[in-house]
């Protein structure tokens, strides 16, 4: 078996593993309790996009008050931050090194927001003010879901951590409802990882015997 064929087989095995990789979703902010103390925003207990009464990792789980966050931008490009989460070990662990931050929201009309409207995510912690934008899909029920890929460097985290939403539109002043802010990470199943490693090891033995 040539080294080129060996490489192709290895790539196929790895591709099969990652195509079947499950996604771990962990909720960060979803209740009134979670959204309390966000900047330039107000909590809403009369509007709830996901119907959850269970706190996210921001409040350590448990029963909470269903609701959402209304961000109130004072300019056409504005940041809306959570309270400090630097001591929240489960939340920090959920961020891992990279993944997607996903959230649901409504969508202002062109008359309200102008010719463009976009929401993004920002991670504010030691030595970092990382801003990301992603893609948005229409859920066809009056809500939208935005998915934003991000990277995180936990080794740099020392004294502060805020997670925020970026408002970017032609016009300011329109309130936007945000709910169910969550992290989604691809997590290979142990069995899939073990199978892949065994497969690669077997290919290595075949390659060595035929050299």
Describe this structure in words.
- The structure is a single chain.
- The protein has 211 residues and is an alpha+beta fold.
- It folds into 2 domains: 1-21 and 189-211; 23-187, Galactose-binding domain-like (Jelly Rolls).
- Helices cover 25% and strands 36% of the residues.
- The chain has helices at 3-19, 32-35, 89-95, 110-113, 190-210, and strands at residues 23-29, 41-44, 68-71, 77-81, 98-105, 117-125, 128-133, 135-138, 144-151, 161-169, 176-186.
- β6 (117-125) and β7 form a beta hairpin.
- α1 (3-19) packs antiparallel against α5 (190-210).
- It is globular, with a radius of gyration of 21 Å.
- The model is unreliable at 191-197 (pLDDT under 50).
Task: Give a brief description.
Helices cover 25% and strands 36% of the residues. It is α+β, with helices and mostly antiparallel strands and 211 residues long.
